[in-house]
Design brief:
This protein has 537 residues and is α+β, with helices and mostly antiparallel strands. Among the domains are: 1-36 and 353-395, no CATH class; 401-536, Immunoglobulin-like, CATH 2.60.40. The protein has eleven helices and 21 strands. It has a five-stranded mixed beta sheet, with helices on both faces. A four-stranded antiparallel beta sheet has the order 3-2-12-14. A four-stranded antiparallel beta sheet has the order 5-15-16-19. Helix 1 (75-91) crosses helix 8. The longest helix is centred in the middle third of the chain and has 51 residues, at 167-217.
Amino acid sequence: MTDKSGNHISGLKKEDFTVLENGAEQKIATFEEITSDPQRMSRPRDPNEFTNSLGGEGSNRRITLIVLDFINTPFVAQARARQDLFKYLTQSLDQHEPTALYTLNRSGIQVIHDFTTDPRILVAALHQINGDTYEMVDSPEDSQAMSAGLTSPDSNAGVPKGDGGSSQSSKGHSQTQSEANSLQKMMQDTELNFRSFEQRLAITYTLEAMQQVAQALAGFPGRKSLIWASGGFPFNVSDNSMHLAPAGRDSLSDLLPLYEHTWQLLNDAEISLYPVDVKGLQTLSVAPASMRNGAGNPRNPSRNYGSKAMSREMDTQSTLQTFASMTGGRAYYNSNDLVKGFRDAVSDSARYYMLGYYVDHSNTKAGWRRLAVKVNRDHTEVRARSGFFVTDATIDPEASRNSDISSALQSPLDFTSLTLVARWDKTEPAKDPGKKRVNYEMHLAPDPTLINDADNNHLVMDFMALAKTPDGKAADHPMGQKVDVHLSPEKVSVIRQKGVAYGGALDLAPGEYTIRFVVRDNLSGRIGSVVAPLRVE
């Protein structure tokens, strides 16, 4: 909420606001004006205890997370992103600001720097980042440019020429031309199929990374700024339904559940997305010289190259804007001042209003629901999320159970919707020769919402543990169990006072391991995870 000069407007009351869902006014149930504090976070230092909770002073801490997206960014633009991020960190960053830096590449999301250490160390960490010369998604025009050398602009190039006087020569020419056309079509189809496959991979990697980031930030109160530094997203969004738009011959319909669940998690975690187009100021593209040869040929890929490239760039910018507005963030593009984008994203979370209302759970229709926030004040700019998805996972958390648990077991990030503490217990000989049984305990903080009072004190949870070797390979299958019980009043009282405890064990050969502990509340879909090092003697 800002005035025409961009300054925060303070002192507004709940009565000054109107919230609409699909055009219908909603009753505002919660209202707060928040001034956030840039307070450093810390981790507990008990060598036998591991938690996904971060300590720090103040209840309104703000968090900034920067993701350098190397999958969807040309190599030259990756260098620009690192240079401008370096400027921001050295010139503009508050040294008390909790700031984390992740990268996204073909290995998934990678943690370069978390929230718990001095942000000045970020500068040193940034120097250690290597770019990725392999960009997963090429534009249709660039793909044509790469394949232009495979065929000649002259439709008769490479065809043996006779004296033109014999029917046998004419027949041979026609047959050779037909074979050449078939080969060219096959090569073009192969290129299109490969590009479609690469795009699907990029979409999947990008959405899965966003889900993991959302799960990692979900347990921290208040608004979080997610700066997504990229060359663009590997897909477009429909203006009306906010669904993924088809990509050429690929409808992408099977990716819709992944896409919608991603936005559900981002909104649940109160994350505002700030896409920053690191390509900078864009100029009209010109076809490569290899494509301009024979430009008069209607089959030549250089025809309309510039207009197609410009149209593609406009689609990219539109998608950046759409993504930002969906979460109440802001998109930055077509500018060489990336530092301003980084700086504005952080300052946006310094002061803001938090409004909430109760969703009508009797309306289980899946899809996009439009939001609008109005304020009874002249000359103001209101920026809030433009809507949210109601998905199958929203209605029935069981729908995303397997994918959520798998993501938590494989992610390098701690998921924080549930506050989890893991402790080592005794180690003893295992039944299998040469192995040791390592006992552990997982403990959840008291949380009354874990129990469904209306369903006879129902509690449904998954507890999992996975051991990995130093090279990242699973040492065994994940161990754990699903707990589905109706609790007695006595047990309900204990859980509400002391929380939920679960004990388990891993049978492992001597060596070094990292253990990923995961717990999921299947009534709400919330999940907690933490990683712990382990040495088995």
